[in-house]
Design a protein that fits this description.
5-stranded parallel sheet; 8 helices; alpha/beta; 4-stranded antiparallel sheet; 41% helix; single chain; elongated; 22% strand; 226 residues
């Protein structure tokens, strides 16, 4: 099986080596760039890059500029790295179409897990925009959800919540992250609204509702037992 290519862009060679070593151990092929201009050269020269890991603060061309340029041509998954814990950075990242956002310092194992989750997510969604996992199927184009072929009657937010869970299969999601992603940043309601929607969603999913695991004190995780 051909190795998936990951492009790691960071001006710190030690950081690139750390990320490269962990990704290589998991069977990925890693390409490296030390600045934004070099990153674009590599990206356009190699059409098989599966995920881009992109630092924000870089010489010549920063991560935001690289992201804008790539997004004008490609939907390749992008994970942004930053040393800042600034919410404005995160908001800008999502506006530009960033798939994941990780603040430094971070655990390389967590980064690898995010890469694997993104690749699972993209491979689970076929050309028709359909997500499938453990007998649960969601068609994001027609907005139809079904379990073992039987349609479910879901509200708009229940559908969006289930789609978000399935797209992030195996990842623990905080209530705050779920609110930001499903209800958007302009929502200022109580996080308990998530618990209410999850309860209704589990009920409508029947036995498959067990796929939505509660992470006590944090949030939820969608996981299909192997």
């Amino acid at each position: 099986m051909e190795k998936r290519k990951i492009l790691v862009v960071d001006d710190e060679s030690r950081m690139r080596k750390l990320v490269r070593d962990f990704l290589t151990k998991q069977g990925f092929e890693v390409l490296e760039a030390g600045d934004g201009e070099a990153a674009l050269d590599i990206f356009y020269a190699d059409k098989d890059i599966a995920v881009l890991i992109l630092d924000v603060m870089m010489p010549k061309m920063d991560g935001w500029q690289v992201c804008r340029e790539i997004r004008s041509h490609s939907k390749v998954p992008i994970i942004m790295l930053t040393a800042r814990g600034d919410e404005r950075d995160e908001l800008l990242g999502f506006e530009l179409g960033v798939d994941e956002y990780i603040s430094k310092p971070f655990s390389p194992k967590i980064l690898v897990a995010r890469v694997e989750a993104i690749l699972r997510r993209t491979s689970q969604t076929d050309a028709d925009g359909v997500l499938r996992a453990g007998g649960v199927e969601i068609n994001k184009v027609s907005h139809i959800a079904s379990i073992d072929g039987e349609p479910m009657e879901l509200s708009y937010k229940e559908f969006e919540l289930l789609a978000y869970f399935m797209e992030n299969q195996g990842i623990a999601l905080s209530r705050e992250k779920i609110l930001n992603s499903v209800w958007n940043y302009d929502y200022f309601g109580d996080a308990r609204t998530i618990d209410t929607h999850v309860k209704k969603l589990r009920s409508k999913m029947g036995e498959k509702g067990e796929y939505i695991k509660t992470i006590w004190g944090m949030g939820y995780k969608f996981e299909v037992e192997g």
